[in-house]
Amino acid sequence: MALLDAKNTFGFVAGNLAIDKCIEMAHTYGMGMVSVRNSNHYGMGL
């Protein structure tokens, strides 16, 4: 499991970073889980 501090950035930016990290972890460990904190509104999503 990983924790991503978005440092008050846009939610969609933090979401993309979290997805990339989750995919990387899944390739390495077979699964990935990322929690995001300190981000703004995610908007319409990806």
Structure description:
- The protein contains 1 helix and 2 strands; from the N terminus they run βαβ.
- It has 46 residues and is α+β, with helices and mostly antiparallel strands.
- The protein has one domain.
- Strands 1-2 form a two-stranded parallel sheet.
- The longest helix has 19 residues, at 11-29.
- It comes from Aspergillus arachidicola.
Provide the β-strand percentage band. Answer: 25-35%
* Number of E-type strands: 2
Spans of 5+ residues with little confidence (pLDDT < 50)?
none
Structural class: alpha+beta
What global shape is seen? elongated
The main β sheet shows up as: 2 strands, parallel
C-alpha termini separation: 22 Å
Output the helix-strand order.
Answer: EHE
Radius of gyration: 11 Å
Spatial arrangement of strands, main beta sheet: 1-2
Estimate percent helicity: 40-55%
- The number of helical elements comes to 1
Overall pLDDT score: 92
Key features?
46 residues, alpha+beta, two-stranded parallel sheet, 1 helix, 2 strands, elongated, oxidoreductase
Summarize the structure in short.
The chain is an alpha+beta fold and 46 residues long. It has one helix and two strands; from the N terminus they run βαβ.
How is this fold's topology laid out?
Blueprint: E1 2-9, H1 11-29, E2 34-39
Parallel strand pairs: 1-2
